[in-house]
Amino acid sequence: MATFARSTFSAKAYAAFRPAYPPSLFRTVLNYHQLPAPSGTLLDLGCGHGLIARSLRLHFKSVIAIDPSAGMIAQAQQTTTDPAITFRQGSAEDLDFLPDGSVEMAVAGQAAHWFNYGKVWPNLARVVRPGGTVAFWGYKDNVLLGAEQATHIMEEFVYGFGEVAPGVQGMGPYWEQPGRNILRDLLRSVRPPEEDWTDFTKLEHEPGEEGTEETCWLKKKMKLGEVESYLRTFSCFNGWKEAHPQAKSRADGGEGDILDIMWDRMVDAVPEWKAMGEGWREAEVVNDWGTYVLMARRR
Q1: CA quadruple 177, 183, 187, 188: dihedral positive or negative?
Q2: Looking at the chain, which runs of residues are DSSP E strands?
Q3: H or E element in which residue 73 lies
Q4: Which of 183, 207, 209 lies closest to 294, judged by CA?
Q5: What gap in Å lies between CA 237 and CA 240, rounded to an integer?
Q6: Which domain of life is it from (predicted)?
Q7: Beta carbons within 10 angstroms of residue 210's beta carbon
Q8: Do you find a cis peptide bond into 178, omega within 30 degrees of 0?
């Protein structure tokens, strides 16, 4: 998660272009928790710009939301007016500020692949009350449905380690590991200790496959220009950009960075997009992300 904590990372762009979570996802985790009425404290781990805290606030008396990134916390505070939500800079590995059994539910959206579980599970076992719950969820690797060749080109640029274009190295080396590989495996290696947690439930969806509303909860029609802006929030791209400061994007008056080159090839691969000329960003495509939801109840 170090990329998101850097001063060069734009929390504002992250908030603007990352996909939002649908109501069906929140219904899934709240139905699992079986909360009869607003009560207790929600703990939002890796809260980012505060989307989850704001979305779930009405189901709890209070929300404590933490994130290691000062920029994310500042963005969250600027866009949140509810006094029942408290944001603070911190990590899931350090919950000493919370009393024992003080948390009704702990959640983590698109953050749990970064956790050091040797510390996080004992922390959560201490602060979550008996009968309380945890719910982690996240998403990986969107595919562009009906544009398989363009998806293949995108994956080659995003995960490639060698040259993906003449003189251009792929973004693969700039993913922070092992977090990214843990996410790409949909957190199958993560399981709560049975001595502290029960009723373990796991939902997952591989991109491009069939699924239910509970498993396939992140599918969205987007303009290609929106997909382009989303890809510019990737941590691997921000790492690549720092390593290649001379490669300026065309939008910034340069000759083009790795994403400009990638989109040239993707557009060339889809005749309908190519026929639109400079207007290709207005073309629409359905994006389907791989997703997981992990839930457990405190004994």
Answers
A1: negative
A2: 41-45, 62-67, 85-89, 103-109, 128-144, 163-165, 168-169, 197-205, 219-223, 284-298
A3: helix 70-78
A4: 183
A5: 5
A6: Eukaryota
A7: 8
A8: yes
Eight-state DSSP code of residue 82: -
User: Can you list the domains of the chain with their CATH numbers?
Assistant: 2-298 (3.40.50.150)
- Cβ-contact 192, 200 below 8 angstroms: yes
* Cα 41 off chain centre by: 23
> Could you give the CA distance from residue 209 to residue 124 in angstroms, rounded to a whole number?
33
**Listed range (33-42, 212-221, 229-238, 248-257) with the worst mean pLDDT:** 33-42
Nearest C-alpha neighbor of 45 from the set 89, 99, 104: 89
Distance CA 203, CA 201 (A): 7
Can you tell me the distance from the alpha carbon of 157 to that of 228, in angstroms, rounded to the nearest whole number?
A: 13
**Element (DSSP H or E) covering residue 4:** helix 2-5
Model confidence at 251: pLDDT above 80? yes
CB atoms < 10 A from the CB of 42, how many?
24
The token pair at 100 is 């024992």
Residue 135, helix vs strand vs coil: strand
Residue 39's pLDDT band, with cuts at 50, 70 and 90, is: confident
- What is each CA distance from 3 to 82, 233, 271, in whole angstroms? 28, 10, 36
- Inter-residue contact 1 to 177 (CB < 8 Å): no
